[in-house]
Amino acid sequence: MTSFDLIVIGAGPGGYVCAFRAAQLGLKVALVDKRAALGGTCLNVGCIPSKALLHATEHVAWAKHHAADSGIKFGSVEVDLTQMMKKKDAVVTKLTGGVAMLAKGRKITVFTGTASFVSPTEIEVAPVGSELARAESQRLTAKHFVIATGSAPVELPFMKFDGESVVSSDHAIAFKEVPKKLVVVGGGVIGVELGSVWARLGAEVTVVEFLPKIIATFDDDIVRQFTRLIQKQGLKIEVGAKVTGYANGILTAEREGQKLEIAADKVLVAVGRRPYTDGLGLDQAGVELDEKKRVKVDDHLRTSAQNIWAIGDVIAGPMLAHKAEEDGVAVAEWIAGKPGHINWDLVPGIVYTNPEVASVGLGEDEAKKRGLAVNVGKFNFAANGRAIAADATDGFVKIIADAKTDKILGAQILGHNAGELISEIVAHMEYGGSAEDLARTIHGHPTMSEAVKEAALAVSKSALHAL
Q1: Which pTM value belongs to this model?
Q2: How would you label 111-126 residue by residue, b for 16+ Cβ within 10 Å and e otherwise?
């Protein structure tokens, strides 16, 4: 029986990064995943392929609607969906291959199959797929285990996924043709991103959201402007509506006692994700789950079994790849006897539409709900030189600071490359920076990041390029 210092179950961003860091620290490491292509949901059917499609379709939208303003003319804009999907797949293959190369270079032993605990110190890895049908299960032992099995799309009990008319995000990144009418159930990050992709390619897209607003974790002023912008791009938005069924090409919903009927040849259900612990045999290892079926962990991500840890989507917290990565690094360091660090209060959230939306820390609405005294600085991209030159004037930067100490408590950005711009604010917050610290940091000119500086100045009503 093969033995390791650490076995990581799940090779998504959390799992493989954990394995990499542990190997760097001198541990003998194995990585187990059901997919032969490492990278988990993120690289294979999530973050990366969806961003490839978002990028490609942004070019389509620009060519159709904005190129002529800059003196660039096309006879017509044609989309070869087959080629677009090939390009998306090539991006995925390049990245998953890169992860495999790095694992090999770090002498990490990779096993393809599904893992289940036999005891707290032993797992069985069973083969998956026809190419492995004749292979025998293997038993592996380790001093430590990390559960990094990620999450799976939530399925509505009255509207099961069939991969054709009712689909998950896994299916929606691989349509063979553009749907005529696509209804997206759920106005969160995944819903609006994939809805945007197919709207740009010509689908009639309707987003149906149960809550009173889409991307509901963001402040109301951000959501109002964002909603207007994506409506201008062709998405129809129905909020406060509860979906009740789908049959014969008609999705039904209820809102304030009124029945809604929306025609759809495809329905994308994007109502969230659930922790994936299926078949892990956690009871055999003494690992407990909470009331939401997440693996219970302490402040150091250790489970109820002292040698077993859990990270990423399978535990409480935001289901984000970058959060899972930091979980993985910290756990590897703790296992190796090092002082790992994670600040779960500073996990940025990003919506990769055009324009993007990003946030970190407390929003203005939440700060006021808590009764906190805050100063808020806002700066519109419409007054930023680089944004005007790039025809990217939609949106604004908003920074929330403590009224007494000026310490930055949070920020939200709606605008081009908001996901890139938010990181500067995260870094300042990580070191306890104030709005003045950020305002006095020199920013290159002309750059979109100058809007961040101006928003920081606006906290003290000192913005230079706004009245």
Answers
A1: 0.96
A2: bbbbbbbeebbbbbbb
